[in-house]
Amino acid sequence: MQAYEGSRGSSRWSGPGTLILWSTTTIAIPLALYMAFLYAPDERVMGAAQRIFYFHVPAAFVTFFGAVTIFASAVAMLTTRAPRWDHWTLATTEVSWVFCTIVLLTGPIWAKAAWKGRVGDWIFDPKLATTAILWLLLTGALLVRRAAASEELGARLGAVLGILAAVDVPIVHKATVWWRGHHPVLFAPGKRDALDPRMRLAFLICTIVFFLLFGLLVALRRQLAEVEHRARAAAERASNEGRS
Amino acid sequence: MRGAGFFRASAAIAAKDLRLEWRTWDSLSSGTVFALMVAWILALTLTPASGEAPELAAARYAPSALWTVVAFACAVSLAPAFRAERQGDAFAGLLAAPIDRGAIYLGKLASGLVHTALLALLGAGATAALFPWNPFERPATLALILGLHVLGLTVLGTLFSAIVHRVGRGEALLATLLFPTAAPLLLSAVRCTEASTEGRLFETAGHWLGLTAGFDLLYLCLGLLVFEFVVED
């Protein structure tokens, strides 16, 4: 496809936006750690284990926000066929996969403390099941990308799978809620005041920091994808010139 | 492209695939043996707890066993959907034909649906034989449940089969893509089958039927839209 091979990326390796994002995130991460571990008080029932909440829930927010960004960039990629949209799709898919893994690793730690149940009690939980399935869908999209013979084919198939996965998420959630569910309802109206104000502030800051980190990682991965794309194109040109 | 031409092209592709299958029994034979093997292993391992009535245990396990069999059989029988076109680069010829790419998808979907529907019926027969459980007591509701859910599995399976074909992989990657995406379908299928054997399908599982019908329609439209991006060169 000519449009794919012929285009050039415009951004440099590290634009001023990335630099600002990078420095803000670097300052904000220690602040989030301070808020989560020292500023917020101990929870009465769960104790220190509850502090995983400041990482688990923001990671989950970021993961599902990531699914939306994958959908948007995949649709843009398939309609415009511009490589830059593929770089966005690749970056959001990979970074969302990382945050999804964080949710799946921290979830059981919190669930064990919160529900004190057997594995079977929380494995069917709707939010956990939805996250696990999203993780599998993202893994599938990355596997297909890796298996594709050319960058361009991988980009198309990755975008198609990204769209199918993002559309699936709300349906999976609905189905698992109907199947059986008992995830703690954190932000139901009327329940909001149960949270200590210090906890709420710590949670808010951790959420902002997770979004900053997501943005930074996506920006860096996107730039890396662009460099890889240009390097491949240059290598191809060189081999073509050598042959002719 | 005019509507009639679209459906005529799909019908021609489906008829070609079914004729090929009728002559070789390639995909159905492996799907049948695989479905029976999975059903047999499940019947061996899903036994009643001590003191539990076998019928009660079967009511608990048999719907899940049925849909495990159907899901695996679908993956195995849909994986070779585009294999026939690999010989002599027949797929390039199919793509060069002056027909809408969506018609190719619809044709493959139609022939795949014949395979998967037959295998689903076989799965129902196998679980009825191996568990003290009878899903055929209400044939009309069973047909509705099998039809709706197998359609959804085939809609997804045909699309993923094309993707897997493009990257030169087989059943394992197809299953990796199909099962997570089809998770809502499988949950719904088990709940509907349970409700149907209790004789209360529409009272207790009406919302599941609605979800599945919506899922089928949504993914059919998505499949028709994105198939072109999967197969183009």
Brief summary of the model shown:
With 244 residues, chain A is mainly alpha-helical. Chain A has eight helices and no strands.
Q: What does this protein structure show overall?
A:
The complex is a heterodimer of chains A (244) and B (233). By secondary structure, chain A is mainly alpha-helical. Helix content of chain A is 79%, strand content 0%. The radius of gyration of chain A is 21 Å and the shape is globular. Chain B is globular, with a radius of gyration of 18 Å. Chain B is mainly alpha-helical. In chain B, helix 1 (3-24) packs across helix 5 (101-130) and helix 3 runs parallel beside helix 6. Chain A binds chain B through residues 78, 129, 133, 136-137, 139-140, 143-144, 147-149, 153, 156-157, 159-161, 163-165, 167-168, 171-172, 174-176, 178-179, and chain B through 156, 159, 163, 166-169, 173, 176-177, 179-181, 183-184, 187-188, 191, 207-208, 211, 215, 218-219, 222, 226, 229-230, 232.
Instruction: Please tell me how large the radius of gyration of chain B is.
Output: 18 Å
Shape of chain A: globular
State the largest interface.
A-B, 30 and 29 residues
Number of helices of chain B: 9
Which structural class best describes the helix and strand composition of chain B? Answer: mainly alpha
| Average pLDDT taken over every residue of chain B | 91
Average pLDDT, all residues of chain A = 84
Rg of chain A, rounded, reads 21 Å
Strand residue content of chain B: under 5%
Oligomer: heterodimer
The tally of strands of chain A reads 0
Write a concise keyword list for the protein shown above.
heterodimer; A: 244 residues; mainly alpha; disordered N terminus; B: 81% helix
Q: How would the blueprint of this fold be written?
A:
The complex is a heterodimer of chains A (244) and B (233).
Chain A: H1 2-6, H2 16-39, H3 53-80, H4 83-115, H5 119-123, H6 126-147, H7 151-179, H8 197-243
Helix pairs in contact in A: 2-8, 3-4, 3-7, 3-8, 4-6, 4-7, 4-8, 6-7
Chain B: H1 3-24, H2 26-45, H3 54-78, H4 90-96, H5 101-130, H6 139-166, H7 171-181, H8 183-197, H9 201-231
Helix pairs in contact in B: 1-5, 2-3, 2-5, 3-5, 3-6, 3-7, 3-8, 5-6, 5-9, 6-7, 6-8, 6-9, 8-9
